[in-house]
Hints:
Blueprint: H1 8-15, H2 19-26, H3 30-37, H4 45-55
Amino acid sequence: MDKPMNRIKEVLEERGIKQTWLAEKLDKSFCIVNAYVCNRRQPSLEVLFEIADILNIDVKDLIKDR
């Protein structure tokens, strides 16, 4: 089974947003957000929805379609 992937990095780059900014908004450490961005760790559904809300994007657009 393939590892789940997300598009957080792509969305941040498209919008010129820094990972540190997202970490601050989520009240999470940079290391955790960096792990999400690099797909080393996947956010919980709750956090994924929070990220989508912060970035004003549909949560479906944060999930990579294989």
